[in-house]
Amino acid sequence: MITYVTVGLLGLLTLSIPVGIVLFLLGFGVDAFFSPFPLVKGLGNLVWSTSNNATLIAIPFFVMLGEILVRSGIATRTYAALDRWVSWLPGGLVHANIATATMFSATSGSSVATAATVATVAMPQAEKLGYDPKLFSGAIAAGGTLGIMIPPSINLIVYGFLTQTSIPRLFLAGLVPGLALALGFMLITMLLCVLRPSLGGERRVFPLAEMLRALVQLIPIILLFTVIIGTIYKGWATPTEAAAVGVAGAIVIAALFGGVSLRMVAESILGTVKITSMIMLVVIGASFLNFTLASAGLGQELQSFLDGLGLSPLGTIFVVVLIYIVLGFFIETLSLMVVTIPIIVPLVVAQGFDPIWFGILMIVLIEMALITPPVGLNLYVVQGARKSGRMSEVMLGTIPYVIAMLVMVAALIAFPQIALMLPDALQ
């Protein structure tokens, strides 16, 4: 059954059928050919129970928060401020790409939204200042992946919902690995630009007074992050309530900077509806597919397969990592999560691993899928913002950052406390 489902999934995706529809079609197929019961009769109840969950309300709020920040002009001012602080490093403005992506990851919760924000603001600077298009665009695509690691993260909310794991603890667990990845991206950029200075373009040093004035532009993002994460960890608000507070705060900040208009609000709402609809279609479709797969016995089949390999718990983790790397080439990231979590996570937890730790490990692997062809969404987002050049340039530019992610995967496996030290300390 595993073979049939995998072939069917890849085959339907190659036909450019929307992912959510593909998941429903596979669910119907599994029901028809492998299940002893007509599971489709429970579809209505399944759709209702999946979507009728207060936790998922956080998703449209976090999406709208990112939309408001982008469309109100706060993104442009943040990028300009960070340019003044990090462009003296080897690599110049490339570091501003990574730093801006890190800042927006702390509010938007979406990798694609983060990559689109930074690409829209940064790309006009690349050609004007003579940067290597591969490294410049690759840094944006890689930096955008931090949106699903650094809290608040939509993907971590989905993981917590599907595994019944504490979302605040997941947010805490993602903070250190997310910041470590951002620093890793900057370190590998500096190394490349020291070895080949032509990659980094011009290094610029700004007067201290101008740098200090630029800090004012960073206050909105820092304030929003503090409010959202602080209210969650203080127990004053659930993630959903904190997201709503964040949206209200973003509107107030945008108004103070003169970025609120009827057009901006309308575009933000429309963008939120489009993105949320796509996410919910995938979540509901994957829930139906997982329901049919579980009823048809896929969990036991996969458990028997892993038991047959005779692997140690560590060996099992390496097999799971390899599975995610391979599937990440072909399956969109959110779909990959919601399809595999109900099957993989119980097997991993049964081996004695912490579900919080595994959630962060999975997110790093999901981040890799965002910048690996042929389905890496961030590659297409950045290429779309470039409006010229070849797609292969973006792909080549992400290779150093994929290596950094692999190093983080190895570090998380070797030292689980990288992810667990904050949740354990604040428990």
TrEMBL record:
Keywords assigned by UniProt, alphabetized: Cell inner membrane, Cell membrane, Membrane, Transmembrane, Transmembrane helix, Transport
InterPro entries documented for this protein: DctM (IPR010656), TRAP_DctM (IPR004681)
Matching Pfam families: DctM (PF06808)
Parts of the chain that traverse the membrane: 7-34, 54-74, 135-158, 170-195, 215-236, 242-266, 278-298, 310-327, 334-350, 356-382, 394-415
Residues annotated as domain TRAP C4-dicarboxylate transport system permease DctM subunit: 7-418
Membrane topology: Multi-pass membrane protein
Cellular compartments annotated: Cell inner membrane
GO cellular component terms attached to this protein's record: plasma membrane
Keyword Transmembrane helix: yes
GO molecular function: transmembrane transporter activity
Function in brief: Part of the tripartite ATP-independent periplasmic (TRAP) transport system.
Record family assignment: Belongs to the TRAP transporter large permease family.
NCBIfam families: dctM
Subunit and partners: The complex comprises the extracytoplasmic solute receptor protein and the two transmembrane proteins.
Protein name, per record: TRAP transporter large permease protein
Organism of derivation: Cribrihabitans marinus
